[in-house]
Amino acid sequence: MKTIYFFLINCTLISTVAFGQSSDEIEIRRLEKHWTELLDSGDTSSLLEIWSENYVVNNPNGKIVTPKDIVALMKSGHKFPAVKRIIENITFNQDIAIVMGKELQQPSNMNPNHEEWIPRRFTNVWIKNKNVWQLAARQSSRIVSE
C-alpha cells in the first residue's frame, strides 16, 4: 500500500515539475476561472469571500469600483456579459501573484451578431493571506484599434 501512495505522490510531483507549474500557480489558475463563474452565476456571497476586504477594480469604463458597488449592481439585476479570459503570464513576488492577459467580452447588448467579442487587456492582483489567495485588485481596459 505504501508503494502505491509513494508512486502517486511521485507522479503528482513529476507532473507539476514537467509542466512547470507550482501549486500556487495551479491554485491561481483555478481561482481565476472560479471567480468568473461566481460572477456569471451572481453568487455575491462567495465572491465576497474570494475578494480581499479592500478589493478594488479599475473597470473597462475607466471607473474605480469596490465590492460594495459591484454587489449593489448585481442585486439590482445587472448580469455581467460573458467573458473568456486567456492568461498569458503569472508572476509571483512573495505572497503576491500578478496575472496578466487578454479577455474577450461578449457585447452587453446581445445584438444578433453576438459572436463579435470585445478584446480587452487585464491585470489581476492576488494576495496570499493565511495560506488563502484573495483577489485584491483588478484592471481591465479595451484594446483600441489603431
Task: Give a quick set of tags describing it.
6-stranded mixed β-sheet, 146 residues, single chain, Nuclear Transport Factor 2, Chain: A, DUF4440, 37% strand, alpha+beta, 4 helices
Description of the molecule:
Pfam families: DUF4440. With 146 residues, the chain is of the alpha+beta class. It has one domain: Nuclear Transport Factor 2, Chain: A. It is 36% helix and 37% strand. Strands 2-1-6-5-4-3 form a six-stranded mixed sheet. α2 packs antiparallel against α3. The relative contact order is 0.16.
Quick structural overview:
The chain has 146 residues and is α+β, with helices and mostly antiparallel strands.
Q: Determine the N-to-C terminus distance.
A: 63 Å
Which shape, going by the Cα principal axes?
globular
Q: Which structural class best describes the helix and strand composition?
A: alpha+beta
Tell me the strand order in the biggest sheet: 2-1-6-5-4-3
Mean pLDDT over all positions: 86
Quick one: how many beta strands?
A: 6
Percent helix: 25-40%
Order of helices and strands: HHHEEHEEEE
- Largest sheet report: 6 strands, mixed
Helix count from the secondary structure assignment: 4
* Poorly predicted parts: none
Strand content range? 35-45%
CATH architecture: Roll
| Tally of structural domains | 1
Q: Which CATH first-tier class would you pick?
A: Alpha Beta
Radius of gyration: 18 Å
